[in-house]
Amino acid sequence: MKLAGLRPLAAAVVALAFLAPLAFFFFGALRAPGAAPPPSPELFPRDLSLESFDRVFGLIPFERQFLNSLIVVGFAVPLTVLTASWAGFGITLLGPRARRIAVAASLIVLMVPLAALWVPRFLIFREVGLIGSYVPLIAPALMGTTPFFVLLYYWSYRRLPADVVDAARLEGLGPLAIWRRVGMPLVRPTTFAVAALAFVFHWSNFIEPLLYLTDPDTFTLPLGLGSLGVLGPTDLSVLVAGALLVTIPALIAFALVQRRFLQNTRLAGWLGR
Amino acid sequence: MAGALIRRLSACGFGLALAVSGCGGGSSDGELTLQLFGDAEEATVYEDLLDEYERRTGASIDLINVPDQDAHYAKLSTSFAGGEPPDVFLANFRNFGPYADREALDPVGPRLDADPELEREDFYPQSLQAFTFGGALQCLPQNISSLVTYYNRDLFREAGLAEPPADWTFAQFEMAADRLTVDADGDGAAERYGIGVEPSLVRAAGFVWAAGGEVVDETEDPTRMTLDTPGSRAGLESLIGLREAGWAPTREEAAARPLDERFLDGTLGMFLSSRREVPTFRTIEDFEWDVAPFPAPSSGEPAAVLHSDGYCISRSGDSEAAWDFVRFAAGPDGQAILARGGRTVPSLKVVANSPAFLDDQAPQSARVFLEAIPEIRLLPNAPRWPEVEKAVSLALEQAYYGDATLDETLERIEAETSPLLGTG
């Protein structure tokens, strides 16, 4: 009983440790620009001001870049979930030998440094006339964004009891129907995890928009944030304000799914046993 | 918002299949693109420049502002390799070599010579020399900055130091660094430092030249670094000596609080840098500051280190239209617009000596930048020079912060740079 009473307290302490940086973040954005940043982080700035936010909107076309980022994420995240889950499920349906080859191939592809693909991808997308469009940013989602997401799905599907899939098969369901009606509902926590990670990946992607976008009107938020990041030290609060605005959608997305995510993890616990 | 979204999507022809769509890049819509790097504040100055150009000619230009230098050159390399570079880009003279070497640039020299208004003689010759590669002027310089000493006038007064004279020497410079350093509690970590300097090659070059040394054997076509000659060594030793004497922040201190921030809050007496600090330092309200020349050696020639950026034109684009923009941007009106932003020292003599540069804003002694020009010396613009500089700067940092001896550092520099300079 006593221990149970301590639980909320312990939770509060842990939460506080994680909230402290967020608080510095929040109050840092409320500092007025124009002074050198304080030598050590200050929790409560002396003069609260929204001027840094005004400067963000004055210096970069924030709304347009925000919309552009939303477009990319709006396509890339659902596509990633779809293709990664298909691929992961597909691997579980292979024979043991083919499965090993597929997993090994995914791991090898995972190890290819992204920088090695910049120029080849540029050439390919230029050849089909798509440099400057969002297609080069979204195209990786057609292959699950990264093999890591495919493997994540594969490991989740592998934990499904074989008789569940066999039973579905005996019912006469094809692979796609098994994936949709049996597989996906049972690996929902993985779907949320992949969706969240894919969101963060595409939302914060800097290098690909930098390389493949040519029209400033199409630029995404990380590029705008980058140009706030190299402002002089007296404008640090402007960068923090911009970063805060960029982070808010991610926080909202997490707040929306976390309840279902945590709940499902508990319910889904039987799978692991 | 939804309307804009739908318009954009239909314009870009999205679909699950990678259908070839009519959504091309900025260059395919017939507009010129200008790529440069700089912070958001700097970008607004360039937007003013482009607006003025559009007002005069009706031609609009897309500004691709890349946040930092590394990203700028990564994007340039990728787009050049992919065959779709920006029409015009801004490059430092120490970094355009790789592009000139691959003949990816349309040299501006012949166009400048044929121009009815601009003449070579209008520019400071050092800036033209900096962008000359393979015998041809490749890019048109827009600024000619150099290494100077920013100093806190209030701290000088407090320490009983006279303002640096126009011919101030290393001895006076070192005395000032010593007197400005304050370690009140005597714990070895000063509360205030006398001098801040980044231990990079572009800074070290000033010390090397002032001591009578050379950075490379041949500036135009370097085949080896010459930092190990007695004169060069003496220069490097005087740079390292600033840190050894405890007048400059340690590696940890400089990492915890960068030099420019220290200068801003009055805990750094002097700061060696180029013109680029001026817009930020103009926000200083708590004390007075000014610029002084880079100190002169007690014997020998004074030396200043060139910083210059130029407009380069890609060979693959519409060079004619690109030149029309470049001659405006690097011409008198374009340079005047940029000079008012505070960050540039104009490369055109007439603009540099006009109120557009010599206005009543800080620094009071802006003329220091112009008086240094006759003493300006150049680092090379060789094809692999950016790599050389990166390697040497990393090595020098070790020596400056006492993590390696000068001998070890010079050996490392020799080993790492000789393959890049073609003698390996």
SSE arrangement:
The complex is a heterodimer of chains A (about 270) and B (about 425).
Chain A: H1 2-29, H2 51-59, H3 62-93, H4 96-110, H5 118-127, H6 135-138, H7 147-158, H8 162-170, H9 175-186, H10 188-203, H11 207-212, H12 221-229, H13 236-267
Helix pairs in contact in A: 1-13, 2-13, 3-7, 3-9, 3-10, 4-7, 7-10, 8-9, 10-13, 12-13
Chain B: H1 2-12, E1 32-37, H2 40-57, E2 61-66, H3 69-81, E3 88-92, H4 97-101, H5 109-114, H6 125-130, E4 132-133, E5 136-137, E6 140-141, E7 145-146, E8 148-152, H7 153-158, H8 170-180, E9 193-196, H9 201-210, H10 230-244, H11 251-256, H12 259-264, E10 268-273, H13 278-281, E11 289-293, E12 304-307, E13 309-313, H14 319-329, H15 332-340, H16 349-352, H17 367-371, E14 376-377, H18 385-400, H19 406-417
The proportion of residues forming helix of chain B, as a percent range, comes to 40-55%
Q: Beta-strand level of the residues of chain B, as a percent range?
A: 5-15%
Rounded Rg of chain A: 23 Å
Q: What's the end-to-end separation of chain B, in Å?
A: 59 Å
Low-confidence stretches of chain A: 266-273
Number of E-type strands of chain A? 0
Number of β-strand runs of chain B: 14
Largest interface: A-B, 48 and 52 residues
Number of helices of chain B: 19
Structural class of chain B: alpha/beta
Name the average pLDDT of chain B. 89
* Gap between N and C termini of chain A: 29 Å
Q: Please state roughly what percent of the residues of chain A sit in beta strands, choosing from under 5%, 5-15%, 15-25%, 25-35%, 35-45% or over 45%.
A: under 5%
Helical percentage of chain A: over 70%
Major sheet description of chain B: 5 strands, mixed
* Net shape of chain B: globular
Oligomer: heterodimer
